[in-house]
Amino acid sequence: MRRAIFRHWFLGLCIIAVMSGLGSLAAKLMPRKYHVETRMLTYRNLIISSLVNPGRSIPVEADQPTRAAWEMVLSRGNLKSVIKNAKLIEYWDHMRSPMSRMKEQYLKKAPPPMSDEDKEEALIAMLETSLTVMAEGGSGTVTIGVDWSDPQMAFNIVEAASQNFLDMRHDSEMSAISESVNILQGQVANEAANIKQAIADLERAVKQADARRKKKEADPKQASARQALLQTDHALAQLKFLVQAKRRAIRDVEEFRSRRLTELRAQLAEQRVVFSPQHPVIVDLEQRVATMQADSPQLISLRAEEQSLIQEYLRMGGTDVDSATEGTSLAGLGGPMAGAMLGTPDDPEVAVATDRMRMVVMRHQEKLRRLDQAQTELEISKASMKHRYSVLLPALFPEKPSKPNPKLIAIAGVVGGVALAVFAAVALDILRRRVLERWQVERLLKLPVLAELERR
């Protein structure tokens, strides 16, 4: 093999030169690719949400800024927006490869014209294969990169894709809260209308109950019975008030006696340290303590008056002297406070209307509270959105193509040329069928070689 190379050295050099030239030509004609990428760091906003609504439990998965990053960037709508913002359709002709231009010059024929829709579809397919999106949930980083034939277009594509990603994340987060605010606003408006309706129903029920009450009062028998009932209730209320007044007086007297006993016992303890038990001061203090421990005539009189008032209260029909409000004749009817103030404590329609209005008002207040929390969270989210994302690696204009590598192609051409030159030299000797080497004799004649003579 070595001698074959020396015999056909000129052929080998020609093959190596041709392969090197083809490699250089291929490196020049191959479409170039420029790589541009940007990397962003995302942060969670769990603290903001907890400050807005401390009682709400938020799972970690609910606030993952890197979730669905690949789907968002490579969605069809986003790719159309990237094509529009990067002006790829306007620069369609500038992105043609050198091979396509040479073909056009050689054939003297321009390629068939394409509509903007066809160009857009072709660009979408190219972006789907050229754009790369990597989202790391643990570190919270999102990397967006592209390999494109034009450096300026590659830079514009990455800039547009990253900006669209931020805008889509902002819109998705804000739209969810905004939609909640709109729903709550509609519910608050409905509850306000329900409150107006409940007030109207209550007024109508009160008017109807008042009309029925006046109709009943027109009857002399019912009027006299009602008057007697009201007088009895008034007398019971007065007796209850007197009982409570007596009890307050008894409580004041007992509190005074308790304080006085405490003071006397403290003085007695101090004097016993100084004087003997038979000293007049000690004896006087002990007598005063014993007097204060017994019930005074005033206290006995107050208790007797209290028992007399309680017996009179029970004799007139009272049932519970310890209750806050009297209820012998009216308590059993269960009228609400609002109905009592309106003069219709025993009307069931008024009670139902009052309860309904109270329920509607409470529901309206709850919706107002939730609406206020949602509006506060929306404002805070808008203000904190700029702190949710930071750029770790900005997109940089590429100075040289990432593909192809001219040095690697040139080395491959030279290596391939050497291998092809060796193969060509050996193949040429075999095809000529001339015996030039010892192994050819052994191979062709099947005989061993006994000796070799060198040619001089």
Low-confidence runs: 325-344
Quaternary status: single chain
- Please give the share of residues in helix: 55-70%
Total separate domains:
2
Any overview of this molecule?
With 456 residues, the protein is of the alpha+beta class. The chain has two domains: 206 residues, no CATH class; 167 residues, no CATH class. It has a four-stranded antiparallel sheet. Strand 2 and strand 3 form a beta hairpin. Helix 5 packs across helix 7, helix 5 crosses helix 8 and helix 9 runs antiparallel to helix 11. The chain is elongated. The two termini are 21 Å apart. About 4% of the residues have low confidence.
For the structure shown, list the relevant keywords:
456 residues; alpha+beta; 2 domains; four-stranded antiparallel beta sheet; elongated
